[in-house]
Fold 3-phosphoshikimate 1-carboxyvinyltransferase.
Amino acid sequence: MPLRDPLFQRVAIIGLGLIGGSLASAIRKNSLALEVVGTDLRKEDLVLGQSLGVIDTIADSTAEAVRGADLVVLAVPVQATRKVLEEIRPHLAADVLLTDVGSTKSGFVKDVEAVFGEFSTRIIPGHPIAGSERSGIRAANPDMFTHHKVILTPPDNVSAPHLKKLRALWEACGATVLTMSVAYHDEVLAATSHLPHLIAFSLVDTLAGEDENMDIFRYAAGGFRDFTRIAASDPVMWHDIFLSNRDAVLRVIDHFTRDLDQLRTAIADQDGATLLRVFSRAKAAREHFSKMLSGQAYVTNNSENQVTFRLQPGGSVTGDIRVPGDKSMSHRSIMLGALAEGITEVKGFLEGEDSLATLQAFRDMGVTIEGPDNGFVRIHGVGMHGLQPPRGPIYLGNSGTGMRLFTGLLAAQPFESELTGDASLSVRPMNRVAEPLRSMGAVIDTAEGGRPPLKIRGSKDKKLVGIHYDMPVASAQVKSCLLLAGLYAEGTTSITEPAPTRDHTERMLAGFGYKVERDGPTASVTGGGKLTANAIDVPADISSAAFFLVAASIAPDSDLILRHVGMNPTRVGVINILQQMGANIEIMDEREIGGEPVADLRVRSAELKGIEIPEVQVPLAIDEFPALFIAATCATGRTVLTGAEELRVKESDRIQVMADGLAALGVKTEVTEDGIIIEGGQAIKSGSVHSHSDHRIAMSFAVASLRATGEIEIIDCANVATSFPGFVELAQQTGIKISAEEAKAGVEQGAD
Ligand code: S3P
């Protein structure tokens, strides 16, 4: 059948091995060329290729293959590249696009320069990260590149139309295309592909040479099989790859040898702590393999996952549930546990992306952390001065709390560090911590406008000095940042807050045996003390409970119990405000656990009424306003919020984003500089809402569905995982009619 506008007229594939054959058949399957011509030294493979439908036409020589071709793909062993280039050069069409699929790129570039004199703008080196331990045309598979990455390393002056066409070709074969420099490609591949192959070849060879080799192979368990699968790869191809990527491979072998030697020493010395540290760090890294491959730290880059919530209207909210652990306390439990002397055990830890990022950051600084396993974490504290410099930037995902608290802690360390985050975190203000820390003597560089990334130039020659700081905004993050820095500073660091903010840092420091003075609105610590390991029981997060407090209040016939909710007086604004609006919330079995008040809450449907929210409640309910705006929409009468400009610099501008979302559902509001006015009693209609990657916006609109008149779609909900893993399931369990659709941008690695 004639093709309409194929990408290429005639594609010449030189070398019909596994990759060349797979690409040829992918091009044919996806109708990307009028004709696919193949050539190979193994004539019988050509005949087979044609009979299998991998190629259209057989060419008897490389010269014949490339004549008239507008795309030429070299898929030969890398050591054969130069010879093939010499053969084809005189026969190439003027406008031909030339590419390859080799596993090393600097060798290809050298060969091109040797044969062509210079690097043409139409030669684009390529490398599909796909393969199999099987080789040859018989293993060719047109779907081999689907969901795999293809790396292109175009020259600086590449012809843009040619690059565009090559990218389109690979994408049409199902691949994701990345571009990078030749040198970077070779470094990355040396580590992620070449070294593992070398180790697999070497290990199998070593064991095959042992006297008991028959038994070793006979009893080989799954681990051995998995680990050495790639030792069955093509020896000729791999011999080529190592010779051609010599320098990068040598560097990574040296690095690996040093680390292996360290493990040998640890075993010889019965040094279990080192083994545990390395193994648990590696386990975490392995679990987050795909994220590491895409250049991220181990936490999820949620922006890669597109999650949409879909909600059917109505329902009532019932049951007996416990929401996940408190985010603020989870961060702090890891931080103080890591700096303590001894082993800290944490129960109820929030396994959300934000607190996991904090946990990973400490692993990266040499702290052994076991778990998390169903909310249980065991931290092997390294003491106040035991952190090691991280090997690279610390990625904190979406977490403002993480970044602000780390800044204080790292400013006091004797090493340099860098803090980075996702798109939302990268636009959040950090001068609020950088400036007071600088007056303590810290050296911190920010990006323009005081934004992340933050480069923290800690040094062993310079100690921080205590200051007194009058906080211009009521922020627990700023207070906690300075208290953490103050643990290391000379003298006393004191912070006065304009209004009470959450005091988990102060309480937890006291629990770890560190004295915190409190004098009215001022908290202070004196540097030079130490922390002693402690057991921590993290209560359920009142900020997560808030969605259900509102849900059960607004939905008719609701009756819900929330267990073990943290009731710290600096956090209960949401209950105070809802009760003032007429909510029916019963506080049961109040108790104190590990220095924090906890209670069970029973919520039943109620007729809510609009109120003027007292400004003193604002810092005490700072994270709960998105949910409270939904309550206000369902109340009778007007709700007025003032003094809440801080909401504009949270994970999103929560005043504007909520107003926009409500407007999309037909609810009118009046946005003011520091708050919002909501006339209650308006109908919540069907519509599509954008959460702007803000977890609390997404969950609030999910709750709104209980009183909506039609279906609600909420876009961009992946970040719900930062604070509330399992939200969808728990919401369903209570009666909210929610479903989630997920489109994953996964990364997979083949054998090559
Ligand atoms: C937090 C403090 C609050 C809050 C955040 C957690 C903390 O931020 O919004 O979710 O754990 O210290 P601010 O200190 O910026 O108000």
Residues 410 and 555 are 46 Å apart (CA to CA). The pocket of shikimate-3-phosphate is lined by residues 328, 401, 475-477, 480, 502, 622-623, 646 (CB under 6 Å). The domain at 307-320+539-743 is CATH 3.65.10.10 (UDP-n-acetylglucosamine1-carboxyvinyl-transferase; Chain). Confidence is low (pLDDT under 50) at residues 292-302, 745-752.
